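Why predict the complex rather than its parts? Because the way molecules touch one another can change local conformation, and only a joint prediction can capture that. The input here totals 1019 residues.
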Amino acid sequence: MKAFLMYPDDDFALDGELPPNDAALTQDLELTTLWSAMAAGDSFLFEVAKRAMLSSLHSPDGIVFRQQVLSDCIENAAVVRDLYALSADALAAERSVWGSLLSDRPTSMLGTSVQKMELLVGCLRRLREIAGQHAASFHSPGFTRFFATLTDELDAAYFELVESQLEALRFTSGMLMSAQLTAGNKGIAYTPRWPREQPLLKRVFDRSGFSFTIPERDENGFRALGELEDQAVRVLATTLAQSVDHVKSFFQMLRVEIGFYVACLNLRDLLAAKGEPICLAEARPGTEEAFSAHGLYDVTLSLASRERVVGNYVAADGKKLVMITGANQGGKSTFLRSVGVAQLMMQSGMFTPAQSLSLSVCDGLFTHFKREEDAATESGKLDEELQRMSEIADRICPGSVLLCNESFAATNEWEGSEIARQVLRALLEDGIRVLYVTHMFDLADGLYRQRLGTALFLRAERGGEGARPFKLTVGEPLSTSYGEDSYRRVFGKSISTAAAGSRDPGRS
Amino acid sequence: MTLPFRSILFEGETDEFETPEAPAFFGDLHLDQILGQLVSGREEYELGSVFYRPLHDARAVRYRHHVLTELEQPAVLDAVRAFARGMQQMRERLALANRLHYSLQKQRWFLDATVAYCESVRLLAQRLAELELCSSGLVGLRDYLVGYTRSDEFSSLTVETRELLEELSQVRYAVQIKDARVTVSPYRDERDMSAEVERTFERFKRGAMEDHRVRLRDYPDMNHVEAQILDRVAKLYPDAFARLGAFYVRSAQYLDRTIGRLDRELQFYLAYLDYIEPLRAKGLMFSLPRVSTRTKEEHATATFDLALAHQLLAEDRMVVCNDLRLSDPERVLVISGPNNGGKTTFARMYGQLHYLASLGLPVPGSDAEVFLPDQIFTHFEREEDIETLRGKFEDELYRIHEILEQATSGSLLIMNETFGSTTRHDAVAVGTEVMRQIIELDALCVFVTFVDELASLGESTVSMMGTVLPDDPAVRTYKVVRKAADGLAYAAAIAEKHGLSYEALHRRLAR
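Output of the joint prediction:
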């Protein structure tokens, strides 16, 4: 019995393998902010959200499957939250039964398992009731099948059978076991048996057996009897303990899978309260290189600020390279992050932060962001950057998307541009889509002059007074940097001409 | 006329093959290390005394060679190993029968032991009969087993044990435990609870889960409750248990003496084969040497120090092999060369080669021909605390004198780093004198020395040297090769490497 709410035919593994660049993605896209919002204080949900977003789906069909389940969840939020609470209750109930810490004897293990199973069966009954009451209001293939499974597998006759067996396993009227002899005439293959139904009279006068009684004070004798019972119920204890594990793992899996959608509901509630738009993205096949958006915004920035944030309009269908240039603090990084986060959200089956979005699935998302915090020397920084790019190159494959934020800016512009040109050329020819934020004019301008049909040039510009982030517009790279402005704003004074000139030998 | 089979180690009647103490040279040649590893896990067979006794007769060595040649065939080896395992199981069961307490339990362990015995003897006889054998040892054994397994004694033992075991394995019973009351009754096919419970929860099953199985203590012993139950099971099956009791009383002396001896002696071969197996797997060669007590012409190809090879194997390091050859009238290998260049190892290897050959075992090397010495003498520098150098030198001389007194022309002498405790002049003088005596004795000898002069004292000495890499004299190859002693060449090469040779130093000083 499975939930199958994340994949039509597979479990969602909370302990599966994450992409090797999960740490970089988490850091560069500031995903922790997003997951915290989804968790709403439930650390378990944080893990689930993290897993789901980092282990992307790669086919539009798989994405649609989750989007449909998610739509059901939005329609029936209360029922979904009930299911999540029930699965948590079941696990808590199972944990509340403590086995003896001092004894791993099969008989005591069996007793513990019987208690646990009785509690779990109670939760299964509740689950079955929810399915009976609400199945009709769910329409997605995922939920339809889940409720049908519950209805089929957990009927009244089944609950009756389970409860009668659990009662028998308490062995209130003694234990009957079969055995045979092995080497040294030791008893072996002790197997617990159902007592044969016999008329009372026949049983009373049955003289085929030989009996003896353990004297009251014979402690060793009673211990030996206990050991025999242990041998007899060993398999049974194992079986029931495993059955408890299986039922428990059913609830665990349910908690994980329902949990993902509960986390989505949590995020939706927050965004809805701010009036931020969300939409179910149209997931396009990777080969189409689709990327068009209305109002695409950086959800983590929105979560971190009180006001709504500005979204961008993008029409980059068929583009293999998007170069983003322009003013410092002009929203370049924000835009890059909004694309990365939207990509991951879409490929986990979530809604996306945009009014509308049509996006190709990618086989892998990679980020190569300038790391401000590295206090290494200039040459060390470049070395570190190249090292990271080399690690990416080890793993990246055609159909992937690479987000570059100020890559190779650790060295002078000539050198940085040349490295970048070489890297970009190889990546693009090998079928990798790149979004590249840079203020290296040499690089951007050189690419622009090639007039590539598959490249799009966006520019961040200061719009009206103070409003941030700025909208990106299509436009050629401008040689004027806004760094001077930023400097002045921060330092309250201008950069001297000499200093500005010497800052960049490539420009003089 | 062939003698009846008695032993797989000795042809014909040889009963006194026990030599309880290790020869004096065991430690010097690291044979103690080899033996220690070889018998580890086989202590019960007390194999030491077999290994302490070298053979001095080529015919006796060949008896073992022939057995070993056939024993190395997988089919023969399998058969023999299976027999050994069976006999081991038999001994374990007999030990339980003797140690344990309740009579129904003792009787059954005794039965189980005889079952193991009959089965392993029968299987060995059957498998050897199916094989083409020609070594007199194994042919003798096969014929012996044919006779023994056809004997009334063995066949009735086999039939009886089989029937009894079959009968007891049919025993089924039920035990009802209710509070303090235990009832043993016939089993009536009641339904298995475990299976039904498993089926009930099967629908929740998902892949592999944690294994909850509790390991119950598995001891052959029985407590008094088990014993009481067993007594009542015996009442349910009175005939079977009566037969078991009678068998126990009647069959105490079932073990055949020759079979018992065979079991131990086979371990001599198996232990050695198991010991060299990992080395063979690494590509090192072993071979049965041609042995002689007449000619002292010898050679060995790609041979090595067996103890060292095992140590290197454990450290996953390379084993260096060496060749040697003595053609008449050569008798003495004089080894010189840089320190730690493999000289002592070579000397030890030479001693091991002869000792292992004298045991009739395969020796390290792809091909070998060796003389069977009447005695082996070793002189290795001792750690002993002798206060003065003079005392040490004298002590050395004393021991060498003793060796020369006892040695014959048929002996083997291993002299390692002799006279390190005296002046070069003394070492040359005394060394030359000792060497002349050895030459006169006409004994085989390895003489490790730093005294070049000893390497060319006549046509019976052969000079060999430890070598270094030509490009980098700091790297020893551990190859010891026939080469005239040239003690200065190494020092010159080392100097060159550090730019301190005449030319190098001249150029540097000329700047």
